[in-house]
Every structure is written in structure tokens, then in C-alpha cells.
């Protein structure tokens, strides 16, 4: 069990062990899920759009998808 104290401003510090287990780094966000008299703390991870590709059943590209890919690839090539 790991514990922390609530400050006068209602804030807590996440102990190092909790941050390590959840893989949390500086500036990352967490969410609190209230379950009756308990609260579950979870990392808030945004899923990159590319990770969702192929999950829709339609094979029709989204409007502007080809142009977006061309611009993104051009920007990536300029960074090299």
C-alpha cells in the first residue's frame, strides 16, 4: 500500500512508485473514476490517429486524407 497526504489546497503528490507503475512522466494527465466510495486513478493516454487506422470497416478514404498524408510526409522529409 502506498499513501499520500492531502495539502491545504486539496492537492496530493503521486508517490514515485505509483508514477513508475503507471508509467507517468512530467506533464502527463490522469483521470479519476469514481466507483461508490472508492476512486480509481488511471493514466489519460491519447491514442494517435494512426493507431486507429484500419479499425473502420470502410475502405473508402476520408475526404482530404491523401492531401493530409502528402503534407505530413513533406514536413517529415524537410525535418531530415
TrEMBL record:
Molecular function terms, GO-annotated: DNA binding
Looking up Pfam families in the UniProt record yields: MazE_antitoxin (PF04014)
Does this entry carry the keyword Cell division?
A: no
Q: Does the keyword ATP-binding apply?
A: no
Question: What range(s) does the SpoVT-AbrB domain occupy?
Answer: 1-46
Mind listing the UniProt keywords for this protein, alphabetically? DNA-binding
Entry's NCBIfam families? lp_hng_hel_AbrB
User: Under what name is this protein listed?
Assistant: Transcriptional regulator, AbrB family
Amino acid at each position: 500500500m502506498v499513501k499520500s497526504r492531502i495539502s491545504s489546497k486539496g492537492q496530493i503528490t503521486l508517490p514515485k512508485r505509483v508514477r513508475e507503475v503507471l508509467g507517468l512522466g512530467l506533464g502527463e494527465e490522469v483521470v479519476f473514476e469514481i466507483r461508490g466510495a472508492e476512486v480509481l486513478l488511471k493514466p489519460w493516454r491519447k491514442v494517435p490517429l494512426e493507431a486507429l487506422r484500419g479499425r473502420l470497416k470502410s475502405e473508402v478514404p476520408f475526404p482530404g486524407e491523401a492531401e493530409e498524408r502528402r503534407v505530413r510526409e513533406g514536413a517529415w522529409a524537410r525535418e531530415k
